[in-house]
Amino acid sequence: MQALGRHLLLELFDCDAEALNSLETVKASMVEAAKRAQATIVDVVFHEFNPFGISGVVVIAESHLAIHTWPEYRYAAVDVFSCGDVLQPQTAATYLVEQLGAARASVVELQRGIFLQAAPMPHKPAGARVTGAKVPVAKVPVAKVPVARVLVARVPVATVPVARVPVARVPVARVPVARVPVARVPVGG
Amino acid sequence: MQALGRHLLLELFDCDAEALNSLETVKASMVEAAKRAQATIVDVVFHEFNPFGISGVVVIAESHLAIHTWPEYRYAAVDVFSCGDVLQPQTAATYLVEQLGAARASVVELQRGIFLQAAPMPHKPAGARVTGAKVPVAKVPVAKVPVARVLVARVPVATVPVARVPVARVPVARVPVARVPVARVPVGG
Question: Between the N and C ends of chain B, which has fewer C-beta atoms within 10 Å?
């Protein structure tokens, strides 16, 4: 079985509130995290919200990094979505935990785009782009697997870099959706 | 228990390969999906890769939508990350399944930023931003919950919009990381 993408979802708690509310700090941390993970940065987009919080995305050639911060709760949600075997997403995760001063962190890793295939899947070979070329669709046996395979790791910050810890069974609960009344309003300009 | 964010992860299989390789189609579909979900669009960033594939992010006031397409595998990975109770992420999901011609789709929903608190959490009230203001950190009892609560739903395309189906237990497996040799190279300019 092969997956096209690897998606780390970080929950950063008890962070440095001032760091989470600084566009410069959050942006610089995310860009540096991408570089340390060996990513090729394609685009960087960050916005500051009113009255608190930063949202930002670093688009990389290997997919993206995203962050949303809630300084008032000292919490940040970070995604590191990567493909290819060069990128080291856990390096980005470790760096962000440190930079944002997270006293607690947890990670969920999801495999994205799982196909039944033992051999590595040919993927985005370099080469000249042929405009209007018909896309040759690869004949890939379709995996009959239940949705995504979820690897869940509870990682105390002290032990980050976050080893992927297989968990025997994840108790799944229906969690009430947050009733968050007011949408985040971007600061003008 | 309250969560600050709601994160839908869509796996779209057996899509229209030409649609997945068209920057215009993918971008327009994502922007329209954001609008239909009642999101406030803040920024739109899309890139075409060589030789195939589109990556893009729609930054919204309520967080973000992201997509990565692999036309050669007729596969797209979509994220719809939202906060607030106005946004309807499942509407975006349904629309994208249709627009990209996905014959199969699955969804994982994650609650992001879970705190132990029965009452709704005050969230991003509108108001003038005070530059340099010290962030008042809310006193929120910290949830001692195991990592994220994962809601997994296997959803045949026919039944989308995707109801959140609580699953009793999710079998967790360690899935070998894909050995994807070549990174996606952005098309110049």
Answer: C
The CATH number for A77's domain is 3.60.90.10
Contact yes or no for B71 and A135 at CB 8 A: yes
Chain B contact set for A166 (CB, 8 A): 172-174
Domain assignment present for residue B128? The answer is no
Residue A159 lies in a domain: yes
Q: Write out the E strands in B14-160.
A: 41-50, 54-60, 63-70, 75-82, 104-115, 150-153
Percent of residues in chain A assigned helix, strand, coil, to nearest 5: 20, 35, 45
DSSP secondary structure letters along A84-105: SSS--HHHHHHHHHHHTT-SEE
* CA-based nearest residue in chain B for residue A166: B174
Is residue B186, in this structure, part of any structural domain at all? no
Taking Cα atoms as reference points, which of A111, A97, A99 lies closest to residue A156? A97
* pLDDT tens digits, B56-111: 999 999 999 999 999 999 999 999 999 998 999 999 999 999 999 999 999 999 99
First to last CA, chain A: 47
Smallest CA–CA distance, residue A180 to chain B, in Å, is 4
